[in-house]
Fold this sequence. Notes:
- There is one protein chain.
- This protein is α/β, with parallel strands linked by helices.
- The chain folds into three domains: 237 residues, Aminohydrolase, N-terminal nucleophile (Ntn) domain (Glutamine Phosphoribosylpyrophosphate, subunit 1, domain 1, 4-Layer Sandwich); 194 residues, Glucose-6-phosphate isomerase like protein, domain 1 (Rossmann fold, 3-Layer(aba) Sandwich), CATH 3.40.50; 139 residues, Glucose-6-phosphate isomerase like protein, domain 1 (Rossmann fold, 3-Layer(aba) Sandwich).
- It is built from 20 helices and 27 strands.
- The radius of gyration is 25 Å and the shape is globular.
- The model has no long low-confidence stretch (mean pLDDT 94).
- It binds 2-deoxy-2-amino glucitol-6-phosphate.
Amino acid sequence: MCGIVGFTGNVPADKILIDGLKKLEYRGYDSAGVALAYPGRLDVIRRTGKVAVLEEALSNDEHASCCGIGHTRWATHGRPSETNAHPHIDCHGNIAIVHNGIIENFVALRDELIAEGHTFRSQTDTEVVAHLLERYYEGDLVAAMRKATQQLQGAYGIAAVCVDAPDQIVVTRKDSPIVIGMSDGDVKGSFIGSDMIALLEYTRDAIFLDDGQIALLRPNSIEVFDRSGKTVEPTWTHVDWDAENAEHAGYPDFMLKEIYEQPRAVRDTIAGCVKNGEVILDELTLDDEDIAAIDSVYIIGCGTSYHAGLVARELIEGWARIPTTVDVASEFRYRNPIVTPSTLVIAISQSGETADTLAAVRLARSKGAKVFAVTNVVGSRITRESDGAFYVKANMEISVAATKSFLAQIACLSLIAMFLAQKKHRLTSNQVASLYSDLCETPSQIEAILENQNEIEEAAELISKAHSAMYVGRGIGATICKEGALKLKEISYLHAEAYAAGELKHGPIALLDENVPVVAVVTDSPTRMQTLSNVQEALARGSHIVAVATEGDTEVSEIADYVLYIPRTRDWCSAITASVPLQLLARHVALKRGCDVDHPRNLAKSVTVE
Ligand code: AGP
């Protein structure tokens, strides 16, 4: 969603802000702007459309300011326009702010401020913050920020600059991430970002600001204050990501690059986690007594992370025999789920910042459950609000369509399932060693799939011309279908449905004809024959078939129009391998339909609002 950057240092800020905003483009936005601070003056430049348009506008003039803030906006209140783009300023143009999140009580605040004589220019919820700062500013922007945020309800990451201290940035947050760092290389100074990626070129050591903290950034120092205004010693976190990861590295798009990074993501995630048949998961800080007391598992997540949870349920129930429920976080948070202190809750989130998942984590903890996060982002909010965190080692994921994080999540969750099964005495060391050895095969199997992509292009051609596609499979295959259909919808804007194959005849088969192709996952599994029968039913209605099947499966090739083969593997490992052809298929369809795979419309990488 929206992105924030800021810099105060020894060189002009405009280029640094533009570079930072470009790094945040992947998150999705519709307009962009910067505010550059000078003694007695702020220059605010905003444009709709891409950051490149803003860059072009900035290039028309010299900008000597070494301090500024920048923003990419994803419209929530007020349509995308230059007036609604951030930064927003107070009545006199003395204070400029950028904001991520939503101010829920903005209508009441705006009415109050208008009654006091403030003039509003935009339709946004954000502008109230600029006017609140104006109301409370008496020469100390940190104090004004403290008073202003006491009035706010909702989620926010806010950065502000002021003409009276044009080399300072004041920043705060609640339920919306803010990262701060310093560099003393050629570019010396203090940086902020709503995402670590904006800082990576300059530093890998960062402060992930806590809710309610306010930071004051100067070119040579960072001070952090708590809610009461007391100085606090910030915690610095080292982030093990490469700046190069944010580059295309010769690939036409990030999605393809990240699909090709999957073997490494899985390898890195599982490396060294099983020794002599013992699963070693130090992150799961539960002693034997705690584990013995676990009588149920609840898994929560959204989108692709939710799909990883569905796979995990199969594994946890299958191996550990613990009843497991999987729920989308946006539903979980508003129900009264049966979660008790003996429920183990697993929250899955690539970004670690998804608002719904965070709210679900808080609810589960309030019910006394231990919550463990499975995430890709060190220092993210969900990890800090959980009892422990497993980091998948996917490295930075930029494409909005999650790929490598999904495979790494499944790999990580399979280790958790093995761990629980072992602790519950449902799996012996030999069985664990054998499962782990199967898991260790998957990276090279993914490599084989990537090397041999025949028929994917042709299958994509077929699907790209359809108006809808039906994905069917059973067991693990049914979940892989859900994820495959989500990928297709996200990046090609083509309607797709995913159904457990056995459900077809209970309704959705009515949709099938020669214009609705069926994508069937018919890999080696205990229900392969039943799925094949369902494929026959689809064939009989005239549907064209694209199948994902095991190498050498001639029975499938006889009835399918196109077959995307995967190497022979255990059924549960196909959750990892069979996903790959479906990711590639979705990407090819998107390209054939002229879509920008890395910037799908209406979507954001990290959904930090409800
Ligand atoms: C995946 O391709 C999507 N972009 C989306 O469904 C995503 O998985 C979801 O928003 C959850 O994000 P998270 O894993 O960062 O919590």
